Amino acid sequence: MILYDIPDIRLFWSEDERFLKQFIVPHTWQKIKFQPLSRYPPLINDISFWLPSETYSENDFYDLARTVAGDLIEKVVLVDEFTHPK
C-alpha cells in the first residue's frame, strides 16, 4: 500500500479492471503511481442528437451537462461527429 500510495487495503481483492490495469506494465522496474478510482462502477451513456451547426458549440453541451448533473458526472467526452452531406 505504501509503495503505490493505495489508500484502501480492500482494493487488493478487487476485480475492478480500472484498478488491475494500473499494474500491468511491460517492465517490472517501471514506476507505478496509483490513480484513484471513482467509488462508482464505470458507466457509459451514449447520447445522439441533431443540432444546428451555426449556433452550437461543444462547450454549450458540456456546460448544460455540468449545470444539470453537477458532481454526478465525472467526464463528458465527444467521441464522434457526423455531418450529413446535404
TrEMBL record:
Instruction: Please state every residue range assigned to the domain named FDX-ACB.
Output: 38-86
Cite the InterPro entries for this sequence.
aa-tRNA-synth_II/BPL/LPL, Fdx_antiC-bd, Fdx_antiC-bd_sf
- Organism lineage: Eukaryota, Metazoa, Chordata, Craniata, Vertebrata
Protein name, as recorded = SYFM protein
